[in-house]
Each structure stands twice: as C-alpha cells, then as structure tokens.
Amino acid sequence: MIRSLGNEPPLLADGRRAPDRREVSLRWLSGTFLTGITSSVLMGVALFAALDGRQQLAIPAEAYASAAAEAHEDTTVVRGGRLIAPAIAAKPSDRAIMEVSTVVHDGEKEVVRRQPFAHVKMTLAANHVATEDYPDFDPLAIFSADEPQPAPQSRTGAIYGSDVESEVSLKTIPFPTGKSTLQMASGLSFEEVEENVRSNGSVLTDGNTQLAALYYVDPRRFSNEDADVDLTAGLSARVLEQNMTVSAPESITPQTEEFADDILPVRVDTTIAKALTDSGYPQQYADGIAGYISQQLGTGELEKGDVLRIGIIQKGEQAKIIRASVYRGTRHLVTVAVDDKGKYVPGSEPPMLDAIATAFDDNSFAPPPGQNLPRVYDGIYRAALSYGMTKDMTALIIKLLASNVDFQAQLRPSDSLEAFFSVADSAGQATEDSELLYVNARFGDTQTRFYRFQDPEDGTVDYFDESGKSIRQFLLRNPVPNGIFKSGFGMRRHPILGFARMHTGVDWAAPRGTAIIAAGNGTVEKAGWDSGGYGNQTIIRHANGYESSYNHQSAIAKGVLPGAKIRQGQVIGWVGTTGESTGPHLHYELIVNGTKVDPLRIRLPGGKSLQGEALAKFEDERKRIDTLLNNQTPDQVASK
C-alpha cells in the first residue's frame, strides 16, 4: 500500500519547491485584511461624496424640509399625484337638527314640549378645525374633572312617544278603587240605547273610516230596507309571519365589506377618464368606466358643474367599483353598473344623496393621509367643538370613553363618533343647559354605545349601555392617575421597622400635593388622623361590601367628612408623607367584606345595573332614541 502511494516529492512545472502550508495561510490572511481595509475606505469616500459633506442621514420628509425654499416653491400637488390609496368615504349630510317631543316632570304634572336636538355623525379623521381652545391631555384631569351636575329634575327630560304641537300638561293620579262619592245614574233601557246609536252613529266615524266597535252592529238594523249594505265593510285580513328566523348580529371589523359613494365634483371641462385619474383611480379602471359611459351618454366629455358618483364596495384597503353615475347639477344623466360577470351594463338611477347638491361646497372635509392623523384625544375635541358641542360636553364624552379607548393612539380613517344632544335653537349650537343623550363611538374594532338615563328612584343621571349596565367602572385601580407604582401587595421588608411585614395595599408615588381622586361612588366612613401609622386617612364605603382606604395624605379635601356622598373621580385629598412614611406617596387599600385584597389583581364587578321598573323605563327610552335616530327624514337634515 505504501509503495503504491509513492514517497517521492511532488513534481513542479517551474522546478521550484512546494510552499509550506503556513506560508499559504499567512498570504491569504494578509490579502484578505488589506482587501477589506481598502474596500471600506473606498466605500466611505464614495458615501461622503454622495452626502455632500453631511454626516447624518435624513428621512425623505426631513431632507425635503431642509432643502432650499426656492428649490420647491413652485411645486404643486394635484389629486392624481397621491402616493397612497385615497380614503374613500360617503358624503351624506352629517348633522341633523330636529324638533323632538320630551316630557319633563313639574311637580305633580308632566309637561310635554318640543325641543331642538342635534344628531351629528363625525368622521374624526377629517381635518376639523376647533372653534376654541381645548385642554391638553392630562390623565388626572380626565378622571378628576368635575362633571356638571344635573338639576334635581332633568332639564331635557325623556323622549316622549308621540309628537305634540307646542306644549301639553299631563297629570297622573291613582285610579280610584274606593267607593265613589258620585250618585249612580239609572241604567238605560234597550229602547234608549237603540235611540242613542241611531242619533250618534254618524259621530263615530272619521271620513270614510268607521270605528271598529260598530262592526259588531248589524247595519241592516239602522238603515233603510232599500239601501245597499256591504256587510264586509271594515273587515280586513292581517298576515302574521310564521317560522321567522332572526340571524345573530355580525360584528363590524375593518375587514367587513362596506358600501360607499365617492362624490367627484367637476370644476372645469374635462373628460370622464381624466376626472377619474385625477381623483386617484387607476388608469385601467378609469378607461373602462369612461368607455362604457361614453357609449350611453353619447360623449366622453364632462362640463363644469357636472358630478361623478362612484359606488364602491370597500373591504379593508381593497376597493371595487360597482357603479358609476353622471349628474348635470342635480339632474341624473346616466348610470352604469357591474353585473355578476364583471361587465358594465346600463343601471337604474340610484337614490338621491344630499351630497350631490352640496358637492361644490368648500366646507366639506376630506380625511388627510394616515401618517398625518392626530391623536384620538385631539381628534375627538376638534370634531366635537367644530360640530357645536361645548367643552364640558366633550370632556364628559372623554371621561365616559376613558376605560375603553386609548387617547394617546393615532386615529384611524375609520374612527367615528355619533352623538345626540339638546341644543338651544335650529343653529345647532349647544349651551351650558344642553344635555348629552346618546353616543356611539367606533375606534378600530371597538364600538362603544351608551344612553343617558335618569333613575326614577333616586333621580341620579348616568349613562348605560344597551343592556342597562353603567358605562362607568365600578372602582378605579389607581386613585393617582399620574402616579408611579412603587410597591405592590404582599410580604415585604418594612422600610422603617426593618423586618418583614405584610403590605396590605399598593403604593403610588407622586410629588407632595398631587391630587387624589375617589376610586368610585360611595359614602365617607372615616376622614381624619389615624394613630396606627396611616397618617391622614380617608375610608369610603362603596356598594356590595367594598371599601377603599387612602393613607399618608398631606391634607383632606374640604367637604370630605363622615357621611358625605362622594362621586367617582372627585378629589378627596392630596399626596403627602404623614404617619409612618419615608416619602410622599399614597398607600391605597381595597377592603372586601372586611378583608384587605390586592387592588391590582382582584376582579372588580361591573358598574351599576338597572333592574325592575327602572330597567323597563330605560328600555323604553332607549327604543325611542333608536327609532328617532334611525327614522329621521331628509327634510330634517342640515348639511354641515
């Protein structure tokens, strides 16, 4: 085997000896190292020259802003140059002023009168301009803002079930079940009853309609024998639905298909295809629609004052054109639609939209691109103030939505807010006496709907969801919204005593004098100095065996005394370091049926729930509001 492999040195073509392996490794390493250094230097020189001496990269927006002003002062932006997909939305009238009959208690009487109400549907992503300044975002202010307290009897009252002309006074008295003091009249004989029917029968009619009670009277008995009598007069059939199935409601998500109308006003003479491409539609769609409309219309030209109406099915970021119409002013010219095979066919005129008549209004808002949208907090305030709501009413909406909405998040184009509130007159401007009756808020996948209701038992006003459950949290977990969590519930080494001890609460650190708010509605059980190390202490008793304890306060708020009624979010004291404390903080305890529990981990019950008669009255009020908002007529609408 050894002889077959050979033991002679390798032969070289040039007669030189073979290099040692260590020499090869050293040459390879040196060459690689020198190549890397040379490449890095050359790349650095090229990059430095390309950046023209700048040593920091800039994003396109920063680079554009830092360029010379004359370099882009002639730049114009047109709709056809949009870089992202346009936010397509319908343009129905977004504010309605209506006269609604309401009932208000006035002593023993109930007064029914007509009052103006505003119904607004706000697209929060639109470029709204607030009519006045509004407060900056402050988590403490959101929870501790004092709400305007309603009068003992609500100023607005409840929605009445029928319309009245001006004002009607109603008085309700118990039905007399005892012996009447009036003398009983003698009964009518059969002849007297028949005579009354003969003489008063004509009164029991309303035009050609006869009261149902007369259908049981033989018409031949009270008519001439020669008269033709229709025995079937007044009889009617009523059709009852059988085996009817009600499908469960489908939750609305960003991927839910929605229909929208995109209204395109034509401000200069142009072609159909150019009007569509200038509005951001792809060239192939614009050419297809324009070609078929031109066949039906006889021309592909549009005049100044025409309106294009594009019907779209939108699902997330994808949109599909299913209909297109052309109007000359408000007069319909032609409509084309897409059939099941995806081809354009002649279509019937769609129902008229108010947005056709207002297409050329300059005050219509268009949602800006997504990257420019403001925070949710700013979007709510700007939209609400621009639609005539007051700052107090907007602050109330913010407070009611605080447990479900992240106000620091950026708005989405689909975020919206619908509100129904009383106003002073047909101008639709709310005042200090205005009251908020209904809110429907949609933020992303979360939808929150609540109604105002005055409890007939204690007269308190609150807001409840569709099922009659209060929209407010039962208890807040943090009575110092801008405090810093320092110590949790459980065993720990006491910072003063120096040995392990059960920490029966949660510590929230904050500067001395920071406001402390009540975790929930309740009654003050104790307010004063505690000799056990808690310092200034306040204990509030809540419903269902819950108590909250606030300790080490620098001072207790005026009016917080034993027996006083406290509202959730009300300022009850200020952060301090009284008692056994090493620094300013709030030691917050939650007590359930006499046992101290972890405020951050315990599962808290929901807010107040209506029951019995109160729940029945709330459901009636809710149904009336829903019916009113869903059935408003077009002549009640005032475009914003």
TrEMBL record:
* Entry-linked PANTHER family: CELL DIVISION PROTEIN YTFB, PEPTIDASE-RELATED
InterPro entries on file? Cell_wall_metabolism_enzyme, Dup_hybrid_motif, M23ase_b-sheet_dom
What is the originating organism of this protein?
Rhizobium pisi
Protein name (Swiss-Prot/TrEMBL): Murein DD-endopeptidase MepM/ murein hydrolase activator NlpD
Question: Where do the M23ase beta-sheet core domain residues begin and end?
Answer: 501-599
Which terms are listed as keywords in the entry? Hydrolase, Membrane, Metal-binding, Metalloprotease, Protease, Transmembrane, Transmembrane helix, Zinc
What molecular functions are annotated in GO for this chain?
Answer: metal ion binding; metalloendopeptidase activity
* Superkingdom of this protein's organism: Bacteria
Q: Which cofactor does it need?
A: Zn(2+)
Q: Which residues cross the membrane?
A: 26-51
Name a biological process GO annotation.
proteolysis
Q: Name one Pfam family in it.
A: Peptidase_M23
Q: Which SUPFAM superfamilies match?
A: Duplicated hybrid motif
